[in-house]
Predict the 3D structure of the following.
Amino acid sequence: MGNPAQHKARKRFGQHFLHDKNIIYKLLRAINLQPGDTVIEIGPGQGALTFPLLEQCKELTAIELDRDLIPILQQGAMGIGELNLINNDILMIDMSALSLKPPFRLVGNLPYNISTPLMFHMLEYNTLIKDMHFMVQKEVAERIIATSDKNTSSSKHYGRLSVMMQYYCQCEYLFDVPPSCFSPPPKVDSAIIRLIPHAAPPAQVDDLEMLEAIVKAAFNQRRKTISNSLKKILSREQIQSLDINPGARAENLSLHEFTQLSNMASNL
């Protein structure tokens, strides 16, 4: 069990182990660890990124669901630094209850099957987080950074994930990671993104739950006009009073326009 070669990637955990050293060191340069950083790795796998991180920061907390990987990670960390392992599901962890000093710097090769809910879970603790460097499916990365500008190719990826992630964070697409960098190779391309929680939100929102509800309703029926998709929340006239075209579709609206709609709805 202590030999990584004996541990097969598990489909139910969405495991694809990173092994390309060039990508690992490119990611380490992007993270740019500083003395005293509180680093948390999500899904360390067999330690391809864990051990180089540990060499730099000397103390690292890693959260791993697969208990069979724990002894592999413990053994590999010996003589490098202090690796604090938490054998649990990241979605079940209260980050504010960890006995670690914020702000946290989060790093992880996120399992494709939970990457979106995992990022939304982290946003609940955005005031505790300095930044996040995540490896995700390329399509997810493109959705996160997409804008509503119809003159850019990114607008076709624009959706609920784009609006909500950009409300909470400055989002940056760093670089691509091809399937050959993993074992087993996934069927899709991956990418590294950097998420930095805003010190202050880019727009005033009176009720976050209302913003989430409006964004979800609008994009759940993205082919419909917003006057149609939001008719249970706002009338055509109310939308028009904000100088927003009720005949527009969700993909045409900026984050600022979604916050305007949300604030009107929450103050009715």
